[in-house]
Here is the input.
Amino acid sequence: MKFVAVLAAAGIVTGAARMQQPQFKAGVDVVRVDVSVTDHGKPVRNLTGANFVVTDNGTSEPVASVTLERLPLRVVLVLDTSASVEGSAMATLLDASRGLVGALKPTDRIAVLAVSDDVKLVTGFDAARSAALDTLARVRAGGSTSLYDALQVAFELVQLDEAGGGARPLIIVCTDGLDTASWLSGDDAVQAARRADVVVHVIDPSGSPAYGLAKHIDTVAQVSGGHTWPATSERDLKELFTATLTEMRDRYLLTFSPQTPAREGWHDLKVTLKNAHGDVLARPGYYVANNGKGHG
Amino acid sequence: MNRRQLVGTILALLCVSLSAQQPAPATVQPAVRGQPPTFKLAVNFIEVDAVVTDASGSPVRGLTKNDFRLLEDGKPQDISSFSIVDLPVDFGQPPATKTAVTSDVASNAEPFEGRLYLMVIDDAHTQPDQAQRLRAAARLFVERDLGPNDRMAVIHDADSPDTNQPFTSDKPRLLAAIDKTSGHSLGSATLNTMNGTSGSGGGSRAPEDVDSFDAQQARDARAAYGTLQRVADWLARVSNRRKAILFISEGIDYDIQNVVPNPGATALARIEPGANIANVRSAGAVMDAMTGAIDAATRNNVAIYGIDPRGLANDGGGMDIEQGPHPSLGNEDQLGQASLRTLSGQTGGLAVIGRNDFSAAYRRIASDNSSYYVLAYYPGDSKRDGKFHKIEVHVDRPGLTVRARRGYTVPKRDEKPAAVAARGAPSDLEAALASPIPVSGLTMDVFAVPFKGAASDTSVLIGTEFHAGDLHLTGGDTIQLAYEAIDSAGRSVVNHVETITLPPGTDVKARVEQNGLRLLERLNLPPGPCQLRVAARDPDGRIGSVISELAIPDFNKGPIELSGVALTSTTASRMPTGKVDDALRSSLPAAPSALRVFPQTDTIALYAEAYASAASPAREIEVSAAVTDAAGKRMLERQLTGDAAAEPSTHPGTAAFGARVPMADLSPGPYVLTVTAKPRADGTAAASRQVPFTVSALTVSTVATSTSSVAVGPCCGVKGSYEAAVRAFAHGDRTSASIAIVRAPASQLQHALSSVDARDPRLLEAAATMHLVLAARALESERYDDMSRQLTSSDAVFQRLRIPEEDPAFVGNWYLASAVMQMNVVDVTAAAALTERGIKGGTAAADVRLAQGIVLETAVHLSGVQSVIPCTSCPAASLLRSYGIRGMFRRSLGPEWSDQRQRTAQLSEAETAYRQSLEADATMAEARLRLGRTLLLEGNARDARIELEHVVNDAGDARLSYLAHLFLADLFERAKDSDGAIREYSAALLISPSSREAYVGLSNLALLAGDDRRARDYVQQWTRRPTATIVDPWSAYLRGLDQLEPALQHLLRIISQ
Here is the structure.
């Protein structure tokens, strides 16, 4: 049952294929990678399968499909509402969040987690967007930050959201990165990020260089194929929130079928371009669960 | 009978400011949530709430938007908004405490999270002999199925408006309104026709009155439908939630099918205003009224639950059994029941008919209104065609039943909403004032204190408080406050809007943002029950409203009467008062406040007036105040002192009383303050008032707050503080000296310090205390350098004192307080040195050692932070704040902190401190728990396990056992024993099901084991966990400074009481 595990770990869309494009044949061992290609910050379009080279643990794999699909998104917005965003910072953050909700398309969905002493599910995927905004307005800043715990919850929320189907999952974390109260460690968060097939973008409203503890959250973004965006101004913050959505919509969806049965554990992935020019951002690997007990 | 007047009154009761018009659906105002809706025309946005039940009638949860199909006129619609409402149905029984005193402060701090019911009692269709039954049926719902957060109104469909009750959560008031049901049905048309007389309410009628009886019956029917229509229209202002009308009626048995003219109908039709059928019975008009009611309910998304209170006793329509049934009687019953079925079925409600056991049906109603889905869609084109549009809601899962409204009717395009034309759209402030539920958004606390007024009216002092940080000012701002008082008859006795302009200036802005704002107002209200509504709009345009149920006393009644109790406290005095009350200015040290939670360092000042009559002159009245705890145990008692200016010339016969009640001797928890007035001669209490309040545990910030609240000093009568303090210390009266110092302005203290004679040891203590107080104030205002300087001076002076032998506990706590302040700037070295000295001089070794351990353990937690950060706004500063540390890094924190050896040394010192604490007092469970965790961090799993299991076995404290289980889980995880870890996490979950760590710990373990499904299950459980607003034990544990506070309390009582 190896391939089931691969499907599970790499977030293959067999389950979702019934409802949503792209279609995959059942029983095919498929790995899916979201790839961002930019040239000086601008998305590069018009690439085809012939332009991508994918290696799995060093072995070159033929690319099965490349789509620049405008699939709907499902976003988990993780807001750090600890004492570090008290006062006007909180107002800015809420403003930016409203901008994000406003920039969603009708088919996109959003869930919001607020992180302070405790992690709170502000709104689930099924709540009305107006409700999300209402509840956001009531969020108050204060307390410590349980960021890693919140990430664990966010990854699982994405998996739980079966109705999300083929929609591309995206986690946007707005935090200064200092975790002060999580039960889980930063390493746990990185592990969870490697196992989940979800792009994580981190927006740092402080815009300041990371202090010691913050390095884990950078790693989380990096292993998920996302990146950290420091905001240097309030306006910047607002723009970054919506920029993460655009970035996600401009991503290529690459699929390939590993030629040899995937073995357990971490697989290094490398995506490069041929006959094309641009910066490639993709998750650096995927994880195959160790005992085949995956989600179905 | 004047129906027009009745209808006006019903509306007045619900919403006085809009009483004369029918609210227009096109101008629906968002009354529930603070956020204004984005849609302009209500009809463009159709909201449907759907109750989904399984075969057993239980609500089905967890459906998603994709499970629903919504059709309008057979065409599928896109659901543009989807939300789930899931409120708990089992409220349990309220705790039966002796001191269940309702709070005298109303607030909108918690958003309305309850159900909204409107009970319409159809008196006109209830026979007097059935009234008892109706009352019982209606009472049952209020008693059993109305939750503490639910709001309900009772409307009688009769022309006695003072029997109605506006929306409230107050069960006794609702029950009282229900009890006023009299029942005055005309009885059975058939019986009347048979006998030529009415068997009931209408009294005997001459045979020639038969026709007028029919018209009367038609009028009653139309009135009942009219009431339903109007209340349903009125409920339009509440959106995004289910709204239910409980229509308690035997059914409207008017036969709308029977259009055969009755002899004599003509005469009556002429005198029936608005009757448009001249020669036939009023069937058409009644039919129109019914359609109108259903249209209004469906248009406004209101579900009607028709409840027939007669239950199963339907053999004779409530008539005497001996009279025997008549074929047509059954028909009337059927007509009545059919009307209930139609109303309920068409509006998505349920008809409760032919049941003797109402409890199951009521539970069903409560559950309908607790778990449902709110779907909304935009119909394709803006239809204002005046037609009925059918709505169908389907869930594509077998065995499920969906109940939702069946459709809606849109007013025609050319039908102008009358209200808008007549008056203009109601302002958002008016809408908030009229809202049946408190509007959250702008948080407000409102209190009301009744005093004797000029004439028969009562002069009620109303105070509105806005929380610190909630008002955003820009300078020269205005705040609008709208007051409305509605008497028991539903009349608006007061309705006015006040605009308060705050003086410009950054000083005002800063004070308001830091301490909130209080606005006072006097209203003259007639005695009797009264609902007070206060709505406010802040400079940002945010709106809030609060509804308070008052019982306005009549002070002219008894021989001795007592006014309400006005309260303030040292803490409350920090809040600036934007509009003051002149009458109370000289009676209380600060403006009366809505604050009902006081720290132990606080002192309440209270004021009350006693009103005498000729029989008991004012000078013969004695007033006392007593504080009782939750169990009713008397904690302290104070005789209130009459002021010299007690008997104001304006109110002869009035005696003014005041007292101060210190909180220092009360342990944290709920209390009731009872103020009693009685004649001096005889001991029987004549009048009393009760105010519930809570004493909160001390925190570092409340200490700083109380020590820095100098503003109250002068008005509390403490003048020339520092001289008094020096004198008091010289006489060894440490307590009064400390009070004087704590209340003295900083400039006075500094002046005093410069003139202290350093050779007099008794004055040295005054100096040391002054330095400590100045340090606390510096900490409060974030002047950390100054704080450190004052602490150093305080310490230097203190060491020259000879107190150690005299009062070791005092010394121990003194050093502890200093150490905690040093910890606020993370000066671990200084803090450790201070605790060390405290241990040498004091007896509170267990506490102090524990504190020392916590200081070191917190330092270890912080050891990941790398550099000295000289700013207060950077992320590292926020990290410190989350540990309860408000200052910035000072000396001891530098790169060496990440040094492993340093960490090991600090852990080992912490271990020693905890062990010493336990040696001094083996029952210090906090020390044992922390010892266990420290050992774990040191890698000594064996000993850690022994200590933690000891805590689990011993601790009576849920917080400690929870944390011990959590740490044991950590221990097993480190030892790669997943089963052990799962066991401990599960045990932790049982103790604290709303805390996060155990869920994420379990989820993470499952994920690492590759069991993604289990990982998800735990997170799913997490999303459904009880969301208590308690502080999470784990983050509180990390905030080590919080834990030091109990150990500080002795000292705080001495220096700030």
